[in-house]
Amino acid sequence: MFFFFSAADDIPHADEVRTLIKDIWDLRIAKLRKSIDIMVSQQEVYARLDDLSLMEINVIRPFLTQALDHMHNLRCHVAENPSNT
Length: 85
What we know:
Layout: H1 3-6, H2 14-41, H3 54-80
Helix pairs in contact: 2-3
């Protein structure tokens, strides 16, 4: 997205293009968040991420790895202390 700021004069209708790309990005991230919400609510033990760009994976990676680690720790805690459930 950096090129929109450094080369905006070279892109016809740069503002419209910028808006369209941001709209597409927002839709893709919303779809990704919905998929992760479903995964967490169904207490899945792994995440399957199909048809994502590297940028999308890198954006969601920190959250997803932390969420899976927390879910694993909670499951281990419950398994070690079944009387707490």
